[in-house]
């Protein structure tokens, strides 16, 4: 009976130690969780994501090597948050939005859907538009030059020294 008591006592002591360590880890985790909740409540309505905010939330970021999956380059990134560690979003917690095709408001046919004749017609229209645009730019520059010249008199232009002539005279004399 004494040996049964001793074995039961040792098993109970080991179970007490195991339960005490679980209580200690639970307490430590609950303290860390409380600190994280306090941090979240402090910043629950922020207007700008800045370095101070990131430093308070993120402990470290681990970037893994890139892999090719189904022809696409993918890379795993682990973000370790302060007080709670690596937070993995549970699968299905984020509702994936269905892929939305852009709505075309224009009735114009896309170039990839055009026949060679239609494509050539569009290219010709583009050339004409480009020529009009560049000629309008040149006309605007000429108009500005004419305005500048109209503000200065011919005698003022004659009185200004011509650098090209003086440079030529200096070279000739040297």
SSE diagram, text form:
Layout: H1 2-42, H2 51-57, E1 58-63, E2 67-69, E3 72-74, E4 77-81, E5 85-86, H3 116-151, H4 154-159, H5 163-173
Antiparallel strand pairs: 1-4, 2-3, 4-5
What does this structure look like?
With 174 residues, this protein is mainly alpha-helical. It contains 5 helices and 5 strands. The strands form 2 sheets. A 3-stranded antiparallel sheet has the order 1-4-5. A two-stranded antiparallel sheet has the order 2-3.
Which keywords apply here?
mainly alpha, 3-stranded antiparallel beta sheet, two-stranded antiparallel ribbon, 11% strand, single chain, 2 domains, 174 residues
Estimated share of beta-strand residues? 5-15%
User: Element order, helices and strands?
Assistant: HHEEEEEHHH
Give the spatial strand order of the biggest sheet.
Answer: 1-4-5
Helix content: 55-70%
Number of DSSP-assigned strands: 5
- List the uncertain runs: none
């Amino acid at each position: 009976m004494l040996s049964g008591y001793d074995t039961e006592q040792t098993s109970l002591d080991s179970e007490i130690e195991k339960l005490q360590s679980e209580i200690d880890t639970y307490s430590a985790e609950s303290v860390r969780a409380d600190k994280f909740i306090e941090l979240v409540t402090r910043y629950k309505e922020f207007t700008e994501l800045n370095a101070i905010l990131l430093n308070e939330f993120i402990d470290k970021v681990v970037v893994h090597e890139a892999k090719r999956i189904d022809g696409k380059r993918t890379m795993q990134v682990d973000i370790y948050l302060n007080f709670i560690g690596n937070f993995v979003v549970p699968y299905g917690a984020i509702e994936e939005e269905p892929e939305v095709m852009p709505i075309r408001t224009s009735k114009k046919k896309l170039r990839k859907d055009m026949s060679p004749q239609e494509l050539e017609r569009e290219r010709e229209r583009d050339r004409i538009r480009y020529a009009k645009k560049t000629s309008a730019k040149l006309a605007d520059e000429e108009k500005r030059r004419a305005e500048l010249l109209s503000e200065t008199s011919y005698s003022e232009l004659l009185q200004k020294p011509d650098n090209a002539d003086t440079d030529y005279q200096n070279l000739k004399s040297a």
